[in-house]
Amino acid sequence: VAGLPVPTELPPPALSFEFFPPRTEALEQQLWTCVRRLEPLAPRFVSVTYGAGGTTQERTHATVARLVRETSLTPAAHLTCVGASRGEVDDVARRYWADGVRHIVALRGDAPAGEAGYVPHPDGYAYAADLVAGLRKVGDFEISVAAYPETHPTASSAQHDLDNLKRKIDAGATRAITQYFFDTEVFLRFLDRCLAAGITVPIVPGILPVSNFNQVRKFSAMCGASVPGWMGKLFEGLDDDPDTRRMVAAALAAEQVRLLQANGVDEFHFYTLNRADLTYAIAHILGARPKVAAAL
Ligand code: FAD
């Protein structure tokens, strides 16, 4: 019977970890405990999200700046163009450049909660592809962009969405990071479609270890990631049992990443939600081992 490969037979993959900027002192502690735990795995980069509509601009900057100052990690700053003029966005990017940050995750962002739909700022970058082109003029950044194996929820068609991804790459992005997904075949088919469209930069799967299934189900409905029925079955009856939920989550994500690895995927981006344990365990299963001592 053809099974998954013995884990140690495959070379360890390249990893990246995503954090969000903390809002409170307690969350700050949680983030830095997470950073300290994951740092020895020597990820290719770690990224810090930018709150909807740029609401975390200062906190994102402070977190990224601290990563530069106090760790051996290479940070990437998420930057969105919603609700800001080109000049304002360029200023944020220039500040990152001056701080030694050389990697931006360039995004459009979404309309603020309560507003009907996305409307570009009159003097702003309208879409992520425009932002990528603008960033190219600010500095020689490494630029990652978002990709959607199940199509962005407001795209007029899957083909338009793929064309849009191609535009972002043609504008100068060097990597795409995907929205999370749970159906591995969906991702592998998406890779084939990207290749057929002439997209040759790495398409890195975004992996979300599911520690809170109900929350993920709600969020997935908004961001267009489908949640297969069998996942509901797996988490059935565990609403009040977080310990078992986490074990199930680890098993589930380990299966997903091993299947991807067996199909030639050698780079993974983890949505850590500022908690290290699941990400660390899954990275370990993929073959990652501590390389450097935490600098903190
Ligand atoms: P775009 O690539 O600009 O595409 C947005 C939509 O517009 C798509 O449907 C596209 O097909 C369509 N489109 C593009 N160009 C045109 C055009 N010229 N005419 C008509 N339609 C067009 N959000 C945050 O607020 N902060 C974050 O830190 C953040 N990080 C993320 C990280 C990743 C890896 C991912 C996958 C998403 C992230 N998001 C974040 C969410 C993201 O901002 C939303 O998904 C947003 O709705 C789209 O952003 P985009 O960069 O993909 O937009």
UniProtKB/TrEMBL annotation:
| Annotated metabolic or biological route of this protein | Amino-acid biosynthesis; L-methionine biosynthesis via de novo pathway; One-carbon metabolism; tetrahydrofolate interconversion
UniProt-listed Enzyme Commission number(s): 1.5.1.54
| Reported cofactor(s) | FAD
Molecular function (GO) terms listed?
Answer: FAD binding; methylenetetrahydrofolate reductase (NADH) activity
Q: Name one Pfam family in it.
A: MTHFR
First-tier enzyme category under EC = oxidoreductase
Alphabetized, the UniProt keywords read: Amino-acid biosynthesis, FAD, Flavoprotein, Methionine biosynthesis, NAD, Oxidoreductase
* An example Gene Ontology CC term for this record: cytosol
Q: Tell me, what is an example of a GO biological process annotation in this record?
A: methionine biosynthetic process
**Which reaction(s) does its UniProt entry say it catalyses?**
(6S)-5-methyl-5,6,7,8-tetrahydrofolate + NAD(+) = (6R)-5,10-methylene-5,6,7,8-tetrahydrofolate + NADH + H(+)
Give the protein's recorded name.
Methylenetetrahydrofolate reductase
Q: Which organism is it from?
A: Teichococcus aestuarii
- Specify the taxonomic lineage: Bacteria, Pseudomonadati, Pseudomonadota, Alphaproteobacteria, Acetobacterales
